[in-house]
Amino acid sequence: MWWLLxxxxxxxxxxxxxxKKISLKDNAVIPVLFLNTVLSxxxxxxxxxxxxxxxxxxxKYILLKSxxxxxxxxxxxxxxxxxxxxxxxxxxxxxxxxVLLGAIFLFGERLNLLQWIGVGLAMAAYVxxxxxxxxxxxxxxxxxxxxxILAVILGAASGLYDKYLMSPEYLGLxxxxxxxxxxxxxxxxxxxxxxxxxYPVRKKTTPFRWSWSIPLISxxxxxxxxxxxxxxxxxEALIAVVSMIRRGSVLVSFAIGALLLHEKNLxxxxxxxCLLLLSMVFLYLGSR
Length: 288
What we know:
Blueprint: H1 2-24, H2 29-44, H3 46-51, H4 56-82, H5 85-92, H6 95-107, H7 113-133, H8 143-166, H9 175-198, H10 213-232, H11 239-246, H12 249-259, H13 267-287
């Protein structure tokens, strides 16, 4: 059942990326991210009371989780604002490759033949999609692409850390406790950052404007994260496969980028996405 949860998380994650892209259009990044963290913290706040504090021995691990995720989000939000959604999705989808390598070396995970075929097809699709992006002038030295790559690396580290935090064979923390406290710490960090870095210079930078797509970011993300951590809490769950399936969110974000945002060079990316979809089929068959 863990693989089904991973697919649900992927769909929600695709909607999350799309809401984020729409919210960041001609908008200030830091206050949008601040509101996102505050709303997420409010949604998961009941978990704070349900699970308790747990002492510093628990909180120090969750605090590191907050720092990893927030660093990834900061880099990713700036990249999302300046790059096409149909480019961000595919590049962001290279994250499972790093997670796969980390899971093999750190956790000793083993994949079956069908899963390896799915992983191989997905890696090939991601490379092809990245090459397609070059047609839009996105080069390796582009600073926003560098931000996106940094977000991918930090996100992969966070994914591996999730396995360590919540797997019964390691720390085995309650997923509700992790969700409740790490979102709480993120809101505090972003409050400090917004108050000291953005607010004093707000009139000299891109102005903030409210959009109803902003709360949708938190709703989709909280749903995706909850289902994702539910999947990882299963002892038989493979972090490499869960992470790979979650990157299937690129199918959702691609469709929204094409139909709603009218992004370019879609024909050259369609075959790549079909290959990615085929990889998801193999991952599904190998996880049954």
